[in-house]
């Protein structure tokens, strides 16, 4: 669409916030589907890669297979399907180079605020250069948030009693010191999620002993790091075909496992327990340390490649303690049971601080956007916010599966607008009284802590945030762009978007 901007600010058709997995993917689809449109990626850090460059802790890896976590347009050809961060970074950066995306990226550019003007049919975006502190503005027709879902500058650490007493090193994985020496040290990892179960076996190579302290167990499953079928197919078939077949296989398998856990939670619990028991030493207290009080997939199921956590426990290089912290001490932590765990290094793998859209301040026609009043449309746009899209992936499958679909759908929306000479696109609630519920049906602590600060979802499509790839295929790839809930306008004079404001009293948890 031709720009309607009348001032001298630099203008681009689409401004992408973030040059990580989602941002690079969005750039690829824009280049492919709209080669004549301009776009710019703004990245607050000095390099691409997002999460995979930010975190530096030992053993950092994916907890999804790279045949589905990777892009649909770029085959994953490594023999390891569950890969470490360095290989994932190489893959992402190769994708950017191969598709000439790097020249569109501006590093150390942080978005501070974004103000939509219906009269001008564009966003005014305020940007700060992190290296100089300079502030300036750009305009764009579309704003796309690929900033992820958590704060990059700060992880979550609960308030522990007596933490100042501890004489050793206290570290959060999000701020990992690259020069940390843990050779021969006693390491205590607080937490039981994906980060903790990755750290514990990875640190046993040098540490004297590693202990994982958890309040509540998590579901943990061992999976082979190599996908034998994928590796065989790649030898017999062209790379692209082998990748497509493997991707379909893995999507079907992960979807089947999730549906099985949802439909038969008690049986799923028994299957996981049986697998854990087989992987641990005879007589190990499985029910104490690996038997969560919730059902499988109420929180994300943790994957350990080749059973590395269980192997570390069996070899007595690592141990698990399930208890509550009473207080930190000079030598470690004292538990509610009275037991004291001594440590030289304590790692608080206690989670993330969830943050919507990089925490930028958004304004629509002079009114500050209150995120809890907004409702997600198809899991990619927000009610009452024109020409804005965001990338949030699945919680029960590979993140990138959803990113690819929503980027495709956004490109279809843009094509529809071009064909019909529309410059404004805005999801609008059918009624300000439409019942809603939390955006994410997920029991993880970092999600629960933030639900009151983020948008919500409806109870039916297109306001439902689907967590099923096949459902989204029908909605986003095969379904029409035209929808009574999605309004298009040629100009402000035709009709301004109606911004419904929800009352919190009407929201249904």
Automatic annotation (TrEMBL):
<keyword id="KW-0285">Flavoprotein</keyword>
<dbReference type="Pfam" id="PF00743">
    <property type="entry name" value="FMO-like"/>
</dbReference>
<dbReference type="InterPro" id="IPR051820">
    <property type="entry name" value="FAD-binding_MO"/>
</dbReference>
<keyword id="KW-0274">FAD</keyword>
<keyword id="KW-0560">Oxidoreductase</keyword>
<dbReference type="InterPro" id="IPR020946">
    <property type="entry name" value="Flavin_mOase-like"/>
</dbReference>
<protein>
    <submittedName>
        <fullName>NAD(P)/FAD-dependent oxidoreductase</fullName>
    </submittedName>
</protein>
<dbReference type="InterPro" id="IPR036188">
    <property type="entry name" value="FAD/NAD-bd_sf"/>
</dbReference>
<feature type="region of interest" description="Disordered">
    <location>
        <begin position="490"/>
        <end position="509"/>
    </location>
</feature>
<dbReference type="Pfam" id="PF13450">
    <property type="entry name" value="NAD_binding_8"/>
</dbReference>
<comment type="similarity">
    <text>Belongs to the FAD-binding monooxygenase family.</text>
</comment>
<keyword id="KW-0503">Monooxygenase</keyword>
<feature type="compositionally biased region" description="Polar residues">
    <location>
        <begin position="490"/>
        <end position="500"/>
    </location>
</feature>
